[in-house]
Amino acid sequence: MASTPRSHRSLDGLVLSPVADQAPGQVGTRTRFTYHEEDGRIWAEYAGGDVVRGHLVGTRAGDRLDFRYVQLKHDGSTSSGHCVSTVVELPDGRVRLEESWAWESQEGSGTSVVEQLPS
C-alpha cells in the first residue's frame, strides 16, 4: 500500500517564543519570533528581552529549517549566526522548533527550543 506524502504545517504567521532563557544578553522567554513562509523560503522578525530587533532568513526542506540570523541588542551591539531547526507538531497542535545554533560573529553555540504561543 502506497503511503501519501505528509503535508508539512506552514509556519506562516505563527508567533513563537523560547521555552527557557538562554545566556544573559541573548534571546529569552520575553523574545517573540513572527515567522513567514513561502515556497520553501522562511523569514522572521524578532524582538523582546535584550533584543531590540532581529531578523532571520533561510530555507525549509520538509521539517528542516536552515537559516542565518542577525540581531541588535539594547547596548547597541550586533551579532549574527547560523541555525538548523527541526519542526515538531505538539500533541495540542502547536508547533515546536528544536534548534542547533552557532554564532558566526562571536564565540558560542548551543541548542534551544521555541514553541508557538497559545492563541
From TrEMBL:
Pfam families: Avidin_like. This is N-acetylglutamate synthase. Residues 1-28 are annotated as: Disordered. It comes from Streptomyces lateritius. It comes from the Bacteria.
